[in-house]
Design goal:
Helix content of chain B: over 70%
CATH class of the domain at 5-190 in chain B: Mainly Alpha
Order of helices and strands of chain B: HHHHHHHHHHH
CATH architecture of the domain at 1-71 and 178-248 in chain A: 3-Layer(aba) Sandwich
Largest sheet of chain B: none
CATH class of the domain at 1-71 and 178-248 in chain A: Alpha Beta
Strand order of the largest sheet of chain A: 5-6-7-3-8-9
Number of helices of chain B: 11
Order of helices and strands of chain A: EEEHEEHHHEHEHEEHHHEE
Strand content of chain B: under 5%
Radius of gyration of chain A: 19 Å
Largest sheet of chain A: 6 strands, mixed
Number of helices of chain A: 9
Number of strands of chain B: 0
Oligomer: heterodimer
Shape of chain A: globular
Chain lengths: ~250, ~270
């Protein structure tokens, strides 16, 4: 089935219905090794649902999901740690897979929270907790990384650094990333493919193509479109005098 | 060595404490104390079955408790009643049916008090074998499902997404709950088994900062409770179950002082 062995997960016309209400339907997308696919869309448009379909959390779905990897890391949108469970950041890093201490330290250092290693998880601030969640996800060296609003609550400079880190992870580990984000400014630079959702796939393609799409403009407004097109000028290639495209 | 009834009771109680310690932590973390109650109340039905058909009590209780757990899962899927109502329904109706059946079994003399509150005189050498082999099996299985069970306790979707199969771990854990009730019913009594699961774990929560430490302290607390409880049971001629649970309560109260201290330190 997998003719292209770079494919990590493939959704074919997938949808999920909860008590007679479609949360999302008719989504087709592919995440490949080393590529970043970003889901955008308004609240309730089915971004998280799509991610959960891709992860196999929802079982009774319409359409199909083909998954070609078991090395998956997930940063969920919401996670609340019950105070009845005493758990330190260190224990949390080992939650789903046993990894070496050096890998734990490295990941916590990359996201800037190594000093919290022995702190109780319940005592962290929202932004600190997001950094720990990202550290846990990357420390497993996954092939597929699913990030649902990974930088929520993180301070502005931290946000930029974390998005740069995510891009770097994608390059160094050659892992595929499915990213959900509200922040159009930040993500578009690194994204290879954008899927714009609103209960169904509104439009999809490269960031530039999506920005020019009328449905996208209707959904996010003209201003958002300008945000994306500004990145056109930050492309990784230049046009030579002969009209050829040269990579930087 | 096991000729003395008290030594038998002590060895049995120590075996039980090793198992209730870790399992009790998950009962506290996953908020299953009422579920534990339901399973242990249904154990009375298991005991009457054992007497009626001349079966081993532990095996009979294990089977009945597992069946009740299965019925509960089915009812949760098929009715709109809230979980606690269903648990109460099953707990009290199975206890009632058990007591009614005992009424019919006039040819057997039952020690109801012993069943409800435990009886150290009742522990036989066979029981020791059941407790220690059963207990060892429970701990081995718990060790095997530790990661998925702990991960899904923290976050179900995370465990599911990263391929840990939390549903299977939960189903296996339910069976382990039935098993721990089966092996501890004679000692602790069916009304107090949940106390043996929860109180040492609650005590451990007060003095631990990681899941592993909480399990360790929970075992130690259970062991101390059994030893203190059984000696006082012998001394004051009280039922073994209440004596053990009362000892556990004392340890819990002592652990509260540790919290007070750490709050003071923070300030």
């Amino acid at each position: 089935m997998n003719s292209n062995n770079n494919i990590l997960v493939k959704l074919n016309n997938a949808g999920f219905r909860q008590s007679e209400k479609w949360l999302v339907e008719g989504v087709s997308l592919t995440v490949e090794k080393g590529k970043i696919v970003t889901l955008i869309g308004p609240n309730g448009s089915g971004k998280s649902t799509t991610a959960k379909i891709a992860l196999g959390i929802y079982k009774n779905i319409e359409g199909t999901v083909e998954k070609y990897t078991t090395k998956v890391s997930y940063v969920p949108q919401k996670i609340s740690i019950d105070w009845t469970l005493p758990i330190r950041v260190y224990d949390f890093m080992l939650l789903t897979e046993t990894i070496e201490d050096s890998a734990i330290d490295e990941a916590l250092s990359l996201t800037g929270v190594i000093h919290l290693k022995n702190k109780n998880l319940g005592s962290l601030s929202g932004g600190e907790f997001q950094r720990v969640l990202i550290a846990r996800a990357i420390s497993k060296k996954p092939e597929l990384l699913v990030l649902d609003e990974p930088v929520q609550g993180v301070d502005y400079t931290g946000e930029i650094a974390l998005y740069e880190l995510i891009k770097k992870i994608s390059d160094t580990l050659n892992c595929g990333i499915l990213l959900i984000s509200h922040d159009l400014h930040m993500v578009m630079k690194a994204t290879d493919h954008v899927v714009c959702l609103n209960g169904h796939v509104c439009c999809s393609g490269s960031p530039i193509d999506v920005a020019k799409n009328n449905e996208y403009k209707a959904l996010f407004g003209e201003k958002a479109s300008q945000i994306l097109t500004t990145y056109e000028h930050k492309h990784d290639h230049v046009h030579s005098d002969e009209g050829e495209i040269k990579k930087n | 060595m096991f000729d003395d009834f008290f030594i038998r009771a002590l060895v049995a109680g120590i075996g039980i404490a090793f198992v209730t310690g870790p399992l009790g932590c998950f009962v506290v973390w996953r908020r299953l104390s009422y579920f534990g109650d339901t399973l242990s109340h249904s154990a009375l039905l298991g005991v009457t079955m054992a007497y009626t058909f001349d079966l081993n009590i532990a095996i009979s209780v294990f089977l009945i408790s597992s069946v009740i757990a299965l019925i509960l899962i089915q009812l949760q899927k098929k009715t709109n009643l809230p979980g606690d109502a269903l648990l109460g329904l099953l707990a009290h109706s199975s206890l009632a049916v058990g007591l009614v059946v005992i009424g019919f079994l006039t040819f057997i003399r039952f020690d109801i008090m012993g069943l409800l509150f435990g009886d150290i005189l009742a522990v036989t050498t066979d029981d020791l074998l059941v407790i220690w082999t059963g207990g060892a099996l429970i701990l081995i299985v718990l060790k095997l499902i530790w990661k998925p069970l702990l991960a899904s306790t923290v976050n179900y979707e995370l465990a599911e997404a990263e391929g840990l199969n939390p549903d299977r771990a939960k189903a296996i854990f339910t069976i382990l709950m039935a098993a721990v009730i089966a092996i501890s019913i004679k000692m602790v009594g069916l009304l107090l088994i949940t106390g043996m699961l929860i109180i040492p774990a609650a005590m451990a929560r007060n003095i631990s900062d990681s899941p592993q430490k909480m399990v360790l302290f929970s075992i130690i607390g259970g062991l101390l409770s059994v030893i203190l409880g059984l000696y006082s049971s012998l001394e004051f001629n009280t039922s073994s179950g209440p004596s053990i649970i009362a000892a556990a309560l004392i340890l819990f109260i002592l652990s509260l002082f540790k919290i007070k201290q750490s709050i003071k330190l923070k300030n």
